[in-house]
Amino acid sequence: MKLLRPRLLSFAADLFLWAYLLYSGFTLYYLEALWSPWRPEEKLVWPALSPWGWAVVVVGMVEAVLLTRSFGPSLGQRVLGVHLVGEGGRRPTFAQRLAYFGFSHLEILVLGAGVWLNPQNPWHERWAGLRLEPLPPLGSEARRPPWYRTAYGLTALLLIAATLAVGWRLTEVDLQKLVRFAPKSLRIWRGLTNPSFEYLFRPDPRIKLSFLDGLVQSLYMALLATVAGIVVAFPLSFAGARNIAARSPFGWLLYSLTRGFFNVFRAVESVFWASIFAIWVGFGPFAGSMALFIHTIAALGKLFSEQVEHIDPGPVEALTATGANLLQILRYAVVPQVIPQFLAFSLYRWDINLRMATVVALVGGGGIGQLLFEYKDDLQWNLVGGVIILFMVTVWIMDYVSGWVREKIV
Amino acid sequence: MRGRRGERRLPPLFVMPHLVVENLTKIYERGKIRALSNVNFSVEKGEFLVLIGLSGSGKSTLLRCINRLVEPTSGRIFLNGVELTKLSPRAMRKVRRRIGMVFQQFNLVKRATVLQNVLAGRLGYNPTLPTLFGRFPKEDVRRAQECLARVGLLDKVYVRADQLSGGQQQRVGIARALMQEPELLLADEPVSALDPATSHSVMQYIEQINKEDGVTVIASLHFLSLARRYGQRIIALKAGEKVFDGKPEEIDDRKFKEIYGEEAEEVEVR
């Protein structure tokens, strides 16, 4: 199996690469030639090919794979660290490569039977007088051709170009629009640069909240969510650290579950949690803080447990040797090593939570974000400008202070 | 037959040495490395035994098998007639309290004070809850100061461990082991990270504990000259096997080459 792996995996990688290039080509053709942004309602189907057309495409794909594999390391071979060499490690000659290309076709026709039967040195390699050998480590080789003269370099270039081109089309990038519709946004800019602080202290009669009320509410939302998040994330971080938890089968299970929990809950954005809690407990700051709290547990838990994994194992070993139990070891050997980083991450998280506190207002999280989105919906850009400036100043001060504190404790 | 704490004991008919190691084998799962194969020896109470051998010969593994920081693959270890290799984790923790250990890299908590590091040697004797809040009996604090006084560090009690020199850190390590009131002291290359002059000072503290308190010491050492100076008996390991067991004087030139390989030459640490 060990010998099969580089051959099969690199072939699979090459096949996948060319299939991807083909897909990108089709997508670009479809978007460029058939689909029109001005008539999106017109039903269009993917370019249909006759059965023999598909056959040509598949055969062409396999040919491209075999060609790159025969002439110079293909991207798949390069990634798996193998290349073709002749007798005694010499560079293959053109004739040998051509023979390898031909015999590879035979191997494909018998569904790779040679590779399965003789993984050491399959027929197509033996007949061409070549072997697939591990690449020598970087620097040990006399001279490697520059990347733009190798098969893998050129295919990698093609891969990057195709990906960027498809990305450009799929995200509907249109630089013209940026310029053409600029005057439309002028009203907004004018409002934002003439901020109004009308409701800085006085509550807005409609929303019944002043700027400062909102800001203070947001600050406390962030603070509470962060503190509660730390309280839960702290003990969990030991369960999520491989060096502490994963020592027995049960511990391994605990570790995997904790890490899985962190990853899943971190992947889901706070906004999503906020919309769940807005329905669960009703609109308002409580829903927002719950959303921030859940996300904080997962994010801090992961950061914390990574710190625990990076501790010096020496003290743990030493205290194990004195007969201390697990809790005592955590308290005396692990916690002192991670406390400064834990504090720094927690402060940083408060920063993030304050910023997130405005975003969760989008789905009814309360706080200063509520004002922001209400005014935005009413196109009251002067008030939006006022809220943004107040918020920016707050975040700037927080950033500065927490940065200063972090510097002191680490 | 069962002892006072429910430990399995051999019938008193056999008077066993302090520590007995029987057919000890350790194979590391990853890479199938045979770190120890069939090692047999016994140590009398109050003996100063030195392990020598090249790096990777299994000295550290052997020491860690004795207090089961490393789980032996097979073989038996008896301390005072109690079979350590059969003990439950909880019972093993109880036994570990009486086995001090000193490490090559000192293994102190760098950010904690000297006192906290030394008190940590007492954790196994104290109930969990108070220690989690950093509370230790007054008696233990007094004892910690005594131990620090013994290694000449009484003026460093409240200093952070990372402020100390290597030799001082190792002395804190020794004080931590002393806190355990050990009957057996394992020292894993205690002076490899120190310069020659400091090495002797640290070794002398270990020797003092051996002589004055009658603590059995098993120390692994890199330099044969140190081993000759401090060891009452020497065991040499080579590729996990015991190749010598005897008095320091018995290691002649031929024996030396056998242990350390043909190209090796003896260097002396003064």
Characterize the quaternary organization of these chains.
heterodimer
> What structural class do the secondary elements of chain B suggest?
alpha/beta
% residues in beta strands of chain B: 15-25%
- Give the integer mean of the pLDDT values of chain A: 85
Shape of chain A: flat
With strands numbered from the N-terminus, the spatial order across the biggest sheet of chain A is 1-2
Compute the CA-based radius of gyration of chain B: 19 Å
Radius of gyration of chain A: 30 Å
Q: State the end-to-end CA separation of chain B.
A: 50 Å
Major beta sheet, strand line-up of chain B: 6-7-8-3-9-10
Query: Which two chains share the most extensive interface?
Result: A-B, 21 and 35 residues
CATH class wording of the largest domain in chain A: Mainly Alpha
Rough shape of chain B?
A: globular
Q: At CATH's second level, what is the architecture of the largest domain in chain A?
A: Orthogonal Bundle
What characteristics describe this protein?
heterodimer; A: 410 residues; MetI-like fold; two-stranded antiparallel ribbon; 2 strands; 71% helix; B: 270 residues; alpha/beta; 6-stranded mixed β-sheet; 10 strands
Write a brief caption for the model.
Chain A is an all-alpha fold. Helices cover 71% and strands 2% of the residues of chain A.
Secondary structure topology:
The complex is a heterodimer of chains A (410) and B (270).
Chain A: H1 4-34, H2 51-70, H3 75-80, E1 82-85, H4 94-109, H5 113-117, H6 123-128, E2 131-134, H7 151-170, H8 175-180, H9 182-193, H10 211-239, H11 242-245, H12 249-267, H13 270-281, H14 285-309, H15 313-321, H16 326-359, H17 368-377, H18 381-409
Antiparallel strand pairs in A: 1-2
Chain B: E1 19-28, E2 33-43, E3 48-52, H1 59-66, E4 74-79, E5 82-83, H2 89-96, E6 99-102, H3 114-119, H4 128-132, H5 138-150, H6 166-179, E7 184-188, H7 196-213, E8 216-220, H8 224-230, E9 233-238, E10 241-246, H9 253-260
Parallel strand pairs in B: 3-8, 3-9, 6-7, 7-8
Antiparallel strand pairs in B: 1-2, 1-4, 4-5, 9-10
